[in-house]
Amino acid sequence: MSYAIVCSSRTGNTDLLAQALREALPEEDCLYFGRPDPAALEAERIYVGFWTDKGTCDEDTARFLQTLTRQQVFLFGTAGFGGSPVYFDQILGRVKEHLPPEASLVGTYMCQGKMPQAVRTRFLGMEDSPRRTAMLDNFDRALSHPDQQDLDALKSAALQG
Ligand SMILES: Cc1cc2nc3c(=O)[nH]c(=O)nc-3n(C[C@H](O)[C@H](O)[C@H](O)COP(=O)(O)O)c2cc1C
Q1: Domain assignment of residue 155, given as a range
Q2: CA atoms of 99 and 105, how far apart (whole Å)
Q3: Residue whose CA is at the smallest distance from ligand 1 atom 30
Q4: Ligand 1 lined by 118 (C-beta under 6 Å)
Q5: Is 42 among the domain residues?
Q6: In angstroms, rounded to a whole number, what is the distance separating the alpha carbons of residues 108 and 110?
Q7: Count of the separate structural domains present in the chain
Q8: pTM, whole model, 2 decimals?
Q9: Could you say which of 17, 42, 99, 146 is the most buried, measured as most Cβ atoms within 10 Å of its Cβ?
Q10: Ligand 1: distance of its center to the CA of 138 in Å?
Q11: 93 CB within 6 A, ligand 1
């Protein structure tokens, strides 16, 4: 089956996932690999990678998803906050709203992605509270992600889809 991998990534986390997918899938069936582009629409299946912006996918991804027609779609993404499948499901729920009804979703995968140091500095400036502590802990937990385990889990999710 022909496929394309499109990926939006601002700081490189989601690009790591896209690269892992590229390595796991058969090279000869790949029609397109790169940023969201109409060239990808020719493929029967499209792996769409996004970074989380304000609780949903980034705008480039949202615009691209709206141009899909009858393709099979596998959504993958990274988010700064994580550790909770419920949180990832909420994000994915919002991302799916951009899919046209004829497109068929064959799978999803999300993991945490490290955030720029400026974000930690901003958290440090907050008044001390359990929320501030949780934000700092989360920031530090995100620093090692995506890690090899994340990439392996993505590959197995994509190969099942
Ligand atoms: C402007 C901006 C908004 C963000 N909003 C969220 C958000 O709402 N929820 C979240 O979990 N992470 C948020 N993040 C964190 C990124 O989604 C996360 O670091 C992601 O892994 C970045 O992916 P990339 O390296 O592929 O760009 C935000 C980051 C930026 C820069």
Answers
A1: 3-114+146-160
A2: 9
A3: 53
A4: no
A5: yes
A6: 7
A7: 1
A8: 0.96
A9: 17
A10: 13
A11: no
